[in-house]
Amino acid sequence: MGDRIQEPELGGDLGDRGGARFHRYADRRVHRVDASTEEILWQFQTPSGIIGQPVTWEHDGTQYVTVTSGIGGVYAPKIPDANLVHVPAGGSLRTFALWSEARRGRQHGR
Hints:
Strand content: 35-45%
Number of helices: 1
Shape: globular
Mean pLDDT: 75
Distance between the termini: 29 Å
Structural class: mainly beta
Strand order of the largest sheet: 1-2-3-4
CATH class: Mainly Beta
Order of helices and strands: EEEEEEEH
Helix content: under 10%
CATH topology: Thrombin, subunit H
């Protein structure tokens, strides 16, 4: 992707085992970035703004990250950001697989 993040995010980051961090934004974007260079490694646009903290867990050797999307209610009108005027309200939950031990083993000859 090669882009660098140009604007502030809402809240803290979530780090993963691969040396990356997750940033999420009220304008509907979630990024996985290299922790040392801030280069965007992966991104996804959710149906609404992301104001909650992402969570991660591992199950059967696969790591996942989940983000909640759903700006609205009393919060959205109080954000003085013209970029958020057209962000739809509503809620969703998105989960993404980050890596699996089986796949990592194949990549490293195990």
